Each structure stands twice: as structure tokens, then as C-alpha cells.
Amino acid sequence: MAELLSHVLIAYTIFTVARWYVEWFTKRWVAMGMIGALLPDLSRIGLFVTDATIETTLGVPFNIGAVHTLGGISILAAIGSLVVADHHRTAFILLVAGGISHLLTDGLKIWADGAASAWLYPFSWYRHPTPGLYVSSDYRVLVVVGSIALIVALVDRRIIHQQ
After folding, report:
1. 3: which residues sit within 8 A by CB, 6+ positions away?
2. What is the mean pLDDT of the chain?
3. Are 30 and 12 within 8 A, CB to CB?
4. What's the predicted TM-score (pTM) here?
């Protein structure tokens, strides 16, 4: 759970800072980017439902692990952007950007074999070597990310958008 919250806070920080510089970027779009950061972790549904069950339901071959890739994020973002009443392209771009922030962050963590997952699928099966900066279960990551997000929130509220 700490990793999921970390991804959301990282997206919040990125998109809030972007909001300072882009005039049309409202809190609505910050939230859209944060939702995008959750998309790759929809692959965790595989803990409860097997691929065979999904294949039977959809009638096509399916691997839930593909959701945690650039291709999976693009498909989920396309579906998610249809929910927005207007500005479908903007919603799509921000959902994908949030998902990419998630994948890039995951690309920095420690993996047992020293290489990240094939997150560039369907464009490439390449698994880049990781710097191994953190373990996903380390609570200190959440403390650091949470502190940075809190600072950004305070600056946003007190200095940038004096409310």
C-alpha cells in the first residue's frame, strides 16, 4: 500500500508543479494525472482473478501483467478518457503521463535479476538494468515522497495560489 500511495504522491507533485507554469492546468487535471498513476497497479487484480477467468469472460487471450506496461496504460487511458465529458485528448494525455510517472518510478527500484520489467511493451521487450535505488516495501520511500508532496502542497496553497 505504501508503494501505491507513493506513486499517487509523486504524480501529485509533478502535476502540481506543472500547474504553476501552465495556465489551463487546473486541479481537475492534476487529479487526472494522479488517477493515471494508479493505472499500472490495476494489474494487481491478478491477485484475485486468474487470467483464465478474464479470458473466459472476454473471449480473447489475456494476461493481466500486460496492464503494467506502456501498451496497457494506453488502452486503459483511452477507456478512461471516454468518461470525461469534454477534453478527451487532454484526459488521455494526462492519464498516460501519470502512468508513465509510475513506470519510470518502478524502473528505479531493486529487482531480483537486476533488470526492470518489460514496461515498454508493445514497442520493445527490452528490460533495462535498474539502478536499484529502493525496495518497494521500504516505508522510508513513502516518508520522503510524502514530505516532498507536503512541501509542494504548502507552497501551492500559501505562495502560488494564496487562499
Report:
1. 136, 137, 141, 142
2. 90
3. yes
4. 0.90
